């Protein structure tokens, strides 16, 4: 390994080195390559990467948007500063063009891995974990609860890194459609990367609905958070909103109460968002063609009394989606024409960041890197999709790309009509 440094000392040093540098260090010697690519070292480094979160001014943001001009998803890394400048040292090339209709839903980004699901423009069973730094991915096997076994149903996904067990996990909640709506409790399965399979859970599953299609997750403190609703005949509308929580380590469900002002709001207009080390809830005035959004923050995680209305955003030009927060207290959001902008809640001014997608295709999260999938993952090449995983050809997708925004609007309109009727039952 090295004539002058004990192996255990070298391992301790290298686990603190960025993943991008370690990929280059494999060429130092055969012994270094053997160490860096060993399951033991990758496990140590992945765990260390999750714990070593960068702080200003070193932290960066990952941005995804759909380019109508290039007919594909584009990924860029930006410095989390006032100008949101592009970081040019790391290039992310999207290798899955043609595998989805327009673009994937990003379920989450955790410890260097993206979880992608092809369910935005219709259900498919394609879910992937992708490490864009090392260009490796795995396609998740089919879960047990799928359409031809359950009949009509909806499903929700959550994703994150389980730091206690040093593993990446995907949780899938499937609701079977009955005569009067979606039956409870739902069917829950967990995919653990270390096992490579789906499995059920022994924990009690709460009789809550996570609203289909508009769901977003907030991954905080090792737990996935979604806005949900449950039956409560003491409320005027017979239902009550809450936050449903799933602990990836212990694989149990929990609940967090919402502020009174949000208990009777339409859950279609609510979603969760991570803010620092706690949870925020976005309350849009309406899901389609929204013009304003109130942002509530749980200042002390787990303390119901610490809920506070943090911001109120009102845009005359119309909003797309609130995506994240910058270090200087501004919001990152899209406007109706698909532009990514920063919004200063103090001055109510917006600043165009030069990223133009569609209003629903943009995604922003803290950027991180790891060596995950270096062993398990399949190498993927840019522009060479696996035809066996694709339901449509690249040429068909390109012919339809002019209607991506119309399809976004159509899908949302259909789901809003259906879910509005469901919630009134």
Automatic annotation (TrEMBL):
Transmembrane segments: none annotated. InterPro entries: F-box-assoc_dom_typ1 (IPR006527), F-box-assoc_interact_dom (IPR017451), F-box-like_dom_sf (IPR036047), F-box_dom (IPR001810), SCF_F-box_component (IPR050796). Pfam families: F-box (PF00646), FBA_1 (PF07734). It comes from the Eukaryota. Residues 1-44 form the F-box domain. PANTHER family: BNACNNG10540D PROTEIN (PTHR31672), F-BOX DOMAIN-CONTAINING PROTEIN (PTHR31672:SF10). This is F-box domain-containing protein. It comes from Cinchona calisaya.
